[in-house]
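Researcher: Please predict.
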Amino acid sequence: MLRGFSFLIIEDEVMQAAHLADMIAGMGGTVSHKAYGFDQARDALYQHAFDCVLLDVNLGGTLSFPIVNTLQERGIPFVLCTAYAEALEVYPGLAGVPRLSKPIDPAALSQAILRVLNDWPKRRGR
């Protein structure tokens, strides 16, 4: 279902990142890189190739909203995976962005990823 798509996982919890990577692999996708903190994530955005990002909101105490802004500016599809899904209602610019509450359900992850990947060509004007 995700064959041919590569993912960047931005998650400060190593075990959660590994679990997400396993789910992506189980769906046929590839994880091109994992970033475990804000600085690694910012660098990975420019140093690695990927089609979609799975992004935690709280990266070791640093909120990832500047990364969200960069992804939106660059037109890169992403899914928020967080323990703070309900709290995201207060952040402007996230309307319509899929957000999954931890622990992540594989079926919900699959559905969210397919949604952003299907919307991606529309947002890029294709």
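Model: The beta strands are 6-10, 30-35, 52-55, 58-59, 62-63, 78-82, 99-101.
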